[in-house]
Amino acid sequence: MSSLRRDPWLSDVLGVKAFGLEGGGELALQDLTEANVDFAWVKTSVFEGPFRTNLETLGFCVIEGSLTFEQSSSPAAVPLSLVRKARPEDEEAVALIAGRSFEHDRFHQDPLIASEVADQLKSEWARNYFRGSRGDVMFICERQGVIAGFLLAIKCEKSAVVIDLIGTSPEFRGQGVASALLMYLRGWTSGVIRASTQHSNLSSIRMYVRHGFLPTGSAWTMHFHRKQPS
What we know:
single chain; 230 residues; alpha+beta; Aminopeptidase; 2 domains; ten-stranded mixed β-sheet; 8 helices; 31% helix; globular
């Protein structure tokens, strides 16, 4: 049975009652009505056809497809001067980069979410690290005396690390910033590194493949928006 979990942070940023959907069981329209859901999201395996069909009948729409990757870490070969751990004073620069770096994610791909709201979501997402509410470690890459990019990671079971967010300032794209951050992470952890990226983000896919990551799965992200009175 599926269950709806209230997402206070997303509710606050979107200004609606937002929920995440957990479990793979059948969901009924009554469940959405009783919880007074304005917005809901779920990530489902591409193999869960009946589950996806059930959600589509309730008004959920596929927003993006994503690929997951995995790699065992190995020693990094990045000069320490290029990458360092984030400091409190980095928050504004990181938030600015996060608000300008994404276009393939589910918020930017949702036609019912304004682009400036999607930018704010990513910016606030990155700020949550500095607030102590998201992620376990953040690395900063500096170029020409300024912050060029960042990588936010979450520790999970059996020494595995998940890349939660990685962003590069538009001015420094194509200059190896994301690769430097990724290699540094490989040297920082002795466990498995997991990552995911959207089907449409070809540059990100190429980067992970170039660094020896292997695909491990694929999923759909679906969104539900309650129809507002016209």
